Amino acid sequence: MITSIVVLLMLIAKTTSAFLQSPYITHINHNTNPLYNAVDDQINNAIMERRSELLSDNIRNEQTVRETLLSTRLSGLNNFLNKSEVRSSSILGAGRGLFAIDDIPKREVITCYPGDALLCKSEDDVVEDLLWGVHVAEADIFDEEAVFVGSGKFIYRICSYTIQYDISSSSLYIEAKPPMTAYSVFVDKSYSVLGHPSLDDNSAYYGHFANDGASMEGLDINEELGMEDNIATYLSKSREAANAKHQPFMGDAPLHHMVTRATRDIKVGDEIFVTYGADYWGIPALLEEAAFRNQVGQLLTVASVAFTLVSIWSFIQSLT
Fold first, then answer.
1. Over the stretch 182-230, which tens digit does the pLDDT of each residue have?
2. What residues contact 106, with CB distance under 8 A and at least 6 apart?
3. Is residue 306 part of a domain?
4. Residue 300 falls within a domain, yes or no?
5. Which tens digit of pLDDT belongs to each residue from 273-290?
6. Is 40 helix (H, G, I), strand (E, B) or coil?
7. Helix ranges (DSSP H) in 24-148
8. Number of domains in the chain
9. Distance of alpha carbon 203 from its chain centroid, rounded?
10. pTM as predicted
């Protein structure tokens, strides 16, 4: 039974789960000048230089060039994108987080979001291909299961019961590692980039370590409110905490790289927060589960009352 559930969940994950943050990427105006300051100019120059190199290598297909740049860590960016560091998050249970080591003004690029792997999606929302960046060592490349499901461990939730199961050895565990798709960010309808959680030695590519300021641990899901109201509550808390956002870099070659940009002035020592989106946290699924539990509870209550009445009636009949 558990094996069948694993197969089903893997199929669902492959087709849907990788594009988690797509509803919450800020709309991009292609008619405005995207370069705000010298940092943007330097990033743009690095992208255009690498693009020219790729074209000179007889890569004439612009789509291939774009996919290569999205899944590339450009060299030299850490010479000026060195404004943040990775250390333990201020959010309990969140693991590592991203912190400013310099004052960062509003609208400035803090770091890039790495495309250590690139998910390519078809027009009908099905993941067609997974491309690994050439900078990722073979030892760091995850198998398909670790990318979409998790590294050997998975959590099944059935009503209020949680079963944690090791897919490979049929053993039970207390904790589960998240899939690599937990580090994915939507670029556009065709692509999502995935940051590798172990590649943490380049300050120019720290975007995947920025946490959401409204974690599930601190979010009170109200089962009596509708889904839209609960999502609005989460978004309000998350956006209040957020001081940055992930977005495609809009230079001379637009949408060829992802960056994390400050949305307000950030002081040295501040943790950098972004908004992941309700789908990332599974809020709709939690509400559906809560509604299901409520319905089951009501049915059990009715059944219990009916059983009690029948028992009383049977007892009365036995006395007559």
1. 899 999 999 999 999 999 999 999 999 999 998 654 555 556 666 677 7
2. 262, 263, 264, 265
3. no
4. no
5. 999 987 777 654 444 444
6. helix
7. 38-56, 62-70, 144-148
8. 1
9. 20
10. 0.72
